[in-house]
Amino acid sequence: MAEKQAFIFMSAHTVLQLTILLLLVASSESDICDGSRGFSGRPGIPGVPGTDGKDGAKGEMGDPGEDAVPISGPKGDPGISGLPGRPGEKGDNGLQGPPGPMGPKGEMGEFTGVDTANQYFVFSYKKSSRLQRVLPDKLITFEIPLISEAGAVFDGEGYLQVKKAGMYYISYHISSNNLVCLKIQVGEEEKVRFCDSPGMIMVTAGSVVLPLKTKDKVSVQATATSSIFSRDTDCTLTGFMLFPMNE
């Protein structure tokens, strides 16, 4: 019985080998020969789903419909104010406007000054007609009044004494020959000096504007050896007040 089973087993093994050999031969022949194919097999089991693909390109905006109504959202809150900008360039000057209306007439102010007939007075004196030599640092005495007002008068010492304070214009005319040097003083203070050397008998002159106070004394004096002769009104001292001043 054992021998019979072994024979069967060996026979099955041999049969398997023969079957495989036949399949190989049939496959080889099917590749070479143009025979008819068998029936299609059943569909296989679906595979596992693949991963999502990449996003496509953005499409163009569609046309709004005829009945589309735009909808506005609510107004947002104001943002934070930015930094101030740089100043712009200066513009051109505009055209000049028309003149404005005339203002109302002002009230008349109060007059505080004193306007009298002798407020702006004139004086003029001449030297004596007698011959007299004027020594250096000596006053020339103008003692004969031509025009005299209360504003300034000559005292007995040869000084012109001021009676009203103000700004004065004072001038002199002197007859002389050779050399004449004169100075105008207020009190003991020299204000101006003039020198002339005509070389013949002629009239020399000088003038000055001085601020004078009440009781100031004005004089004309020689400063060097002079040859001065008086003939009628050849030697005069004249002046007038330009305007009054406060003390």
TrEMBL record:
Protein's cellular compartments: Secreted, Extracellular space, Extracellular matrix
Keyword Hydrolase: no
Principal location: secreted
Keyword Secreted: yes
Bias (Basic and acidic residues) ranges: 52-61
PROSITE patterns, alphabetized: C1Q
UniProt-recorded name of the protein: C1q domain-containing protein
